[in-house]
């Protein structure tokens, strides 16, 4: 019997890739019964970093704790069964390609016709309106589109982590929880749209506030940008021009990454009180920080002047020395490290942020734990499910007889592959 804040919740996941599956995983590890509908070859992430047949490493971190139904959704009998599952679900999560949910009769209006209390959460790329509605999009494309991909003199940085997808997943889980709260009070279901574009813009929240009286420079920059690259400007030219046009505060000297004698550190002393303490600790010549009311004639030049002092100071001592010195003064600082080091760091283990799950073939796996700790209804990290492990039982739950279920398997429009894994154990 599962426990957790979502105990008893029935969820139908029509999802692939990251955003919808990770949302489904959060609900599943919170106690919900999540049925993941996959095609006969499984979610694409089953094949990313393959380890076992139909099980890739990238599948493990966003598909734990679910039941798997592997079917061919072009088959009319299969679609009818999935519609039956949707008619009984509390929550439907979907990120079909544009238009497919309507073709299958699994769009919100179709599901609501038989299940008016359903909370239907859809993930799109660019939203439901506008010229780009219906256009396919992926995380890296949206990072580029929104400017979230950090622009350097060489162009956008190399991107590793799909942060928009995970942000969208967490927004979707929050939206589902909010809609369920509304339903608890009113009995009304509803549809949610969580767009990757919106998730990206939330991640850029600090940059996407425009105050007319101080941000007029943006209009001039955008006008310049229209013809910059066609005129032969480089990324370095564009970055430099934007820096010249944008009003600056002395911040990069106190907030950013810096080399030390044996590595690198990150400081976050941009608040006024923290800047004053850091300037005193490093004995910086910074009138703008130390003398209220003083304003440099050339803000950019002053910022560079202070930052050069900080760079030289930090290079004079080791990372450990600086971390100890800053923390003793209550200043936020930390070493720049590789993510691999988290596995041996005691801090995430002390808080249960990393945990262990047991795979039936591979044995122990270390994973990131569910993202919220509840005192009364704790969530639990669970193991990933083999493709089609519960196909037969789920089809029976949809109302199919044993003979009808057998027919789907005989016709090759439903499958289970866990026998293959059992032979590997």
Write the layout of secondary structure elements.
Blueprint (H helix, E strand, L loop, with lengths): L9 E5 L4 H10 L4 E6 L11 E3 L2 E2 H4 L6 E5 L4 H13 L2 E4 L5 H5 L3 H7 L4 E6 L14 H8 L4 E2 L2 E2 L6 H24 L3 E6 H8 L13 H12 L6 H11 L9 E5 L4 E5 L3 H11 L4 H4 L8 H16 L4 H10 L4 E3 L10 H6 L2 E6 L3 E6 L22 H7 L4 H9 L3 E2 L2 H7 L1
Parallel strand pairs: 1-2, 1-6, 2-5, 6-7, 7-10
Antiparallel strand pairs: 3-4, 5-16, 8-9, 11-12, 12-13, 14-15
Describe the 3D structure:
The chain is α/β, with parallel strands linked by helices and 425 residues long. The protein has three domains: 10-202 and 352-424, Rossmann fold; 211-247, no CATH class; 248-340, formyl-coa transferase, domain 3, CATH 3.30.1540.10. Helix content is 40%, strand content 16%. The strands form five sheets. Strands 10-7-6-1-2-5-16 form a seven-stranded mixed beta sheet, with helices on both faces. The chain has a three-stranded antiparallel beta sheet with strand order 11-12-13, with helices on one face. A two-stranded antiparallel ribbon has the order 3-4. The model has no long low-confidence stretch (mean pLDDT 93).
């Amino acid at each position: 019997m599962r426990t957790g804040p979502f105990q008893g919740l029935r969820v139908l996941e029509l999802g692939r890739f990251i955003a919808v599956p990770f949302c489904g995983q959060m609900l599943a590890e919170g106690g919900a019964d999540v049925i993941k509908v996959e095609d006969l070859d499984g979610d694409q992430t089953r094949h990313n970093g393959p380890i076992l047949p139909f099980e890739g490493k990238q599948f493990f971190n966003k598909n734990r704790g679910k039941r798997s139904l592997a079917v061919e959704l072009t088959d009319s009998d299969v679609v009818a069964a999935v519609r039956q599952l949707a008619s009984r679900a509390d929550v439907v999560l979907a990120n079909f390609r544009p238009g497919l949910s309507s073709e299958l009769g699994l769009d919100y209006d179709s599901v609501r016709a038989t299940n008016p209390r359903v909370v239907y959460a859809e993930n799109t790329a660019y939203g439901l309106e506008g010229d780009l509605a219906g256009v396919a999009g992926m995380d890296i494309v949206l990072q580029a589109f929104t400017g979230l991909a950090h622009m350097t003199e060489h162009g956008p940085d190399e991107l590793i982590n799909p942060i928009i997808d995970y942000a969208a997943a967490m927004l979707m889980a929050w939206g589902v929880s909010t809609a369920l709260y509304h339903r608890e009070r009113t009995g009304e279901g509803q549809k949610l749209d969580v767009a990757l574009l919106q998730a990206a813009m939330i991640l850029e929240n600090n940059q996407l506030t425009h105050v007319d009286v101080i941000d007029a420079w943006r209009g001039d920059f955008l006008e310049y940008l229209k013809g910059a690259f066609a005129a032969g400007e480089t990324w370095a030219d564009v970055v430099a021009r934007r820096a010249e046009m944008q009003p600056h505060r002395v911040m990069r000297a106190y907030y950013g990454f810096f080399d030390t004698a044996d590595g690198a550190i990150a400081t976050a002393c941009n608040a006024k009180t923290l800047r004053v303490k850091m300037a005193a600790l490093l004995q910086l010549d910074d009138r703008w920080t130390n003398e209220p009311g003083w304003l440099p004639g050339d803000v950019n030049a002053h910022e560079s002047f202070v930052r050069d002092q900080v760079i030289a100071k930090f290079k004079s001592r080791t990372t450990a020395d600086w971390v100890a010195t800053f923390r003793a003064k209550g200043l936020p600082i930390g070493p720049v490290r590789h993510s691999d080091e988290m596995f041996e760091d005691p801090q995430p283990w002390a808080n249960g942020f990393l945990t262990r799950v047991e795979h039936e073939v591979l044995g122990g796996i270390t994973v990131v734990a569910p993202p919220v700790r509840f005192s009364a209804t704790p969530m639990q990290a669970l193991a990933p499910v083999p493709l089609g492990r519960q196909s037969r039982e789920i089809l029976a739950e949809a109302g199919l007889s044993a003979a009808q279920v057998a027919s789907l398997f005989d016709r090759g429009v439903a499958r289970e592959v866990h026998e293959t894994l059992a032979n590997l154990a």
